[in-house]
């Protein structure tokens, strides 16, 4: 059975979707963009944006008692691959090197609210 996951510690959905869904021990987190949930405003610059996206993802994981160690798959969308190295270093700083998830990173022409980065994740309960 599907359980809709919602936390005030991550940005509210801006469309017809949930922050995340839990089904059979698997958490599917919708793509997170760099919106500060406290202010509802976008942060700017790839460093700040990447940190905010990771904090938003972490808040959703925490809501269901998980951490980044539970993440099995990540999908990263960048507006420019020129931001890859900076994003990659920040992304890695939130993860345990012994439990990196599978991942792909793709460049896209545009993202919601014209942000530079969006990340979605899939996590599994141990």
UniProtKB/TrEMBL annotation:
Family: Belongs to the RutC family.
GO (cellular component) term, any one: cytosol
Any GO molecular function: deaminase activity
Species per Swiss-Prot/TrEMBL record: Chryseobacterium elymi
Record protein name field: RidA family protein
